[in-house]
Amino acid sequence: MQRTKPISGELLKIRDEVLQYALDYGLDFYPVVFEMCDYDTINILASQGGFPARYPHWRFGMDYDSMSKNYRFGMMRIYEMVINNDPVYAYLLNVNKTVDQKTVMAHVYGHADFFKNNAYFSGTDRNMIDVMANHGTKVRRFMDRYGQDKVEEFIDVVLSFENLLDVNQLFQLSPIKTKVDLTSMKDDIEDGASSSLKTFMRSKQRTEKAGKKTKLKKDVRVFEINNLELPTSDIMKFLAENAPIEDWQSDIISILREEAYYFLPQRMTKIINEGWASYWHSTIMTQNALNASEIVDFADHHAGVMAMSKQNINPYKIGIELLRDIEFRWNTGRFGKEYNECDDLHTKENWDKKLGLGREKIFEVRRSHNDLTFIDEFFTQEFCQRQQLFTYDFNPQSQRNEISERSFLEIKDKLLNQLTNFGNPVINVVSANYNNRGEMLMQHTHYGVDLDMGKAAETMHNIFLVWKRPVNLETIVEGKKSIYHFDGKELKVATEA
Amino acid sequence: MDHPIKRDHARFKKIVKGKIRANLRRFVSQGEMPIPKGDGTFKIPMPSIETPRFRFGSEEQGGVGQGDGEPGDPVDGEPGEGEPGEGEVGEGEGKKSLEVDVSLDELASILGEELELPNIEPKGKKTMESVTERYTSIGSTGPDSLRHFKRTYREALKRQVSVGTYDPENPIIIPVRRDFRYRSANSKVEYENSAVVIYMMDVSGSMGDEQKEIVRTESFWINLWLKSQYKDIEVRYIIHDATAKEVDEKTFFSTRESGGTLISSAFKVCQDIIEKDYNPEEWNIYPFHFSDGDNWSADDTKMCLDLLDNVLLPASNMFCYGQVESRYGSGQFYKDLSEKYGESSDEIILSKIKDKDAIMDSIKDFLGKGN
């Protein structure tokens, strides 16, 4: 049964119209394919990260379960889903109104432009739909051979360190060297091959060369471990290459790592990406595409998407507002030394050099920024006040989160902290031979917030299952430097006085 | 073929079921009851299914919000405050503690499998009328919310074609009042086996909070099982010390009475209820009695045995007596009953509940016979 079908009729006309507006504004994207589907299908796709085919894993079923329930109780509705691929795939929900479909199309062209042009996406595989499907086939084959439970349990373990990535790898994802490669064999696969082909070829190559694996002596491993390039924060790669695991396990890590790096740019550009797409749906709709009869519905839904929240910043809202602010500042020339050093409030208030550089500037911003740099460079005091931002902290007395202050520097600081390393703790492997006993030592770079040590202990347990030697974690807990040591049975802590 | 996600979904369900099963004893003995949600499902906290990751301790982390308010104002807004309208693709992190929804039937089947409970063979005729409404037919009146768009359209089209106002070049159909069609219900009467559970509990001074908690937990699981076996089930509650009265569920579990204990008083109230409302020919009757085994006098015990023999046992599918151990109770009543009926009688089932850990075994004692 075909679950999605291409759009037709009236919607095709609308698509052509919106597409023309998008092109006229200078948006630049790979071809976009719109598909229509029902809510069950969109739930399936959403629970699989947007992709029609993934490897089998229960957590997709879990997400599907909660999404179906949320939909049924009317708590959530997915308006759009778009996949960074060439061509870009976007899914429309068949029960949405025409005006919603129109808005979604405009929004999708925004995302599509961002995917193609933003620097952090430059290294992403544009054939990801095929790659994901291949991963599915591969994992299913492993399951046939080694048993579903065994493979799925290993995936559970790997997901535990799926977030331990190196952002710098985004631009050139270095392939995982197999153990066969490590015994001085070169990867002789042509560089031109797509990565899906490469993983396939590599697994072939591995079976051919499997005979040589026996050469991997213990002393070789010790030698290698002492000569690793450490520290590294690409812990997935580190474990895939160096842990004493079977080839299929190493393959699983490499599959999950490839997918994690594919999703990483989206996690790093949530604000600017959604802001950009919202900016364009808003611009295209209000300036070109809206009919008089659609204005109220559009305004209602747009406002819903832009709603402010006290617990979190809404990336759509902050993103679109910040882009508009930049456009305004570069249109009026409110930037640079002269403007910053002007201390006459009246002049500043009415500053307008009529430069008209705004549009050009935001196109430039969408090319070179991620959320962290976007906020760091353009988040100004005026903007902060206008957006009514505040910081909040947990008050142990009332057991609630309470507004703490509205100071610009505090807010910016906290925002940047949240965005650093895509919101994850910075953790490096610093030694693979800690205490000269083949133990793994990880170091958490502490930026003021402690780790959740309960979860950390469980995570260390999972890493131990892969590394098979004791695992250590150096971090700071309540102001004191501590080293946690997990030896497969119990967790010990050594705290520096 | 179904989408492969259905397999992932089935797998997830299996994992959840396995986790609940593995933890069932803990759930039961710690009194961690699943939270009923009103729509027939239960919410069960399941943190163990979450993938552990290195992440920041969430409580102290704080955050940035947007909106008005003074320093000191709480940000955990009122319930119902919406998240932004657009859903994000499944890359969410740092979700709150994971909970899963399980239906009553699923939960009961887990309990049944874990305790190897047999299905109950109901006695009596199927007399309980239950009416199910199915919206399978079409009517010409009804509320707007049930309007059948396609049928309405068809009627309007028919009318317009027949009176000649239909123009194929400009096919605009305008329905008028008499074109409207609505979904309407067909009632179907089904006959079910009917069942009633009557809980009796001793609330004399010797039954402390812990003992009551045991009764509460045990009755929850017993109800759950019986509900999965009978479509409609009624539950009645009786408390007693030296006198007995019928109460509602809340009172049953919260009352603290004191004074002497005359078990026969409760049996009499139970008898009244059965005689008044539940014809044993038509009803499956399950009386449960919980006490710490103390009775005021041997005479009263004798009266109880008479009542059991002449009234309660003949009327019931089975009569269950659960003796909760307490520091003050003598446990005499259990001895009296077991002397008369034996430890493993089919019509009167005896169970000693030493502490919370024994609840599961006691449930098995009661329900393991399939009466």
Features:
heterodimer, A: 497 residues, alpha+beta, 4 domains, five-stranded mixed sheet, four-stranded mixed sheet, 21 helices, 52% helix, globular, B: 371 residues, alpha/beta, Rossmann fold, six-stranded mixed sheet, three-stranded antiparallel sheet, 10 helices, 12 strands, 36% helix, 22% strand
How many individual β-strands of chain A?
11
CATH evolutionary superfamily of the largest domain in chain B: von Willebrand factor, type A domain
Percent helix of chain A: 40-55%
Query: Beta-strand percentage of chain A?
Result: 5-15%
What does this structure look like?
The complex is a heterodimer of chains A (about 500) and B (about 375). Chain A has 4 domains: about 150 residues, no CATH class; about 140 residues, no CATH class; about 120 residues, no CATH class; about 70 residues, no CATH class. Chain A has 21 helices and 11 strands. Chain A has a 5-stranded mixed beta sheet. In chain A, helix 1 crosses helix 4, helix 6 packs across helix 11 and helix 14 crosses helix 17. The radius of gyration of chain A is 25 Å and the shape is globular. Chain B has 10 helices and 12 strands. Helices cover about 35% and strands about 20% of the residues of chain B. Chain B has 3 domains: about 70 residues, no CATH class; about 60 residues, no CATH class; about 170 residues, Rossmann fold (3-Layer(aba) Sandwich). The interface between A and B is large, with 90 and 53 residues. Strand 5 of chain A pairs antiparallel with strand 3 of chain B.
Would you spell out the secondary-structure blueprint of this structure?
The complex is a heterodimer of chains A (497) and B (371).
Chain A: E1 5-6, H1 10-24, E2 32-37, H2 39-47, H3 58-72, E3 80-83, E4 88-93, H4 98-117, H5 128-146, H6 148-159, H7 179-182, H8 195-209, H9 218-226, H10 235-242, H11 247-268, H12 270-289, H13 295-305, H14 315-332, H15 336-341, H16 345-349, H17 358-368, H18 371-378, H19 381-386, E5 389-395, E6 400-405, H20 408-419, E7 426-434, E8 439-445, H21 453-467, E9 471-477, E10 480-486, E11 491-495
Parallel strand pairs in A: 2-4, 8-9
Antiparallel strand pairs in A: 1-2, 3-4, 5-6, 7-8, 9-10, 10-11
Helix pairs in contact in A: 1-4, 1-12, 2-3, 4-12, 5-6, 5-11, 6-11, 10-11, 12-14, 14-17, 18-20
Chain B: H1 5-29, E1 35-36, E2 41-45, H2 58-61, E3 63-66, E4 99-103, H3 104-115, E5 128-139, H4 149-163, E6 182-192, E7 194-202, H5 209-229, E8 232-240, E9 244-247, H6 249-254, H7 263-277, E10 283-291, H8 298-315, E11 319-324, H9 332-341, E12 348-353, H10 359-367
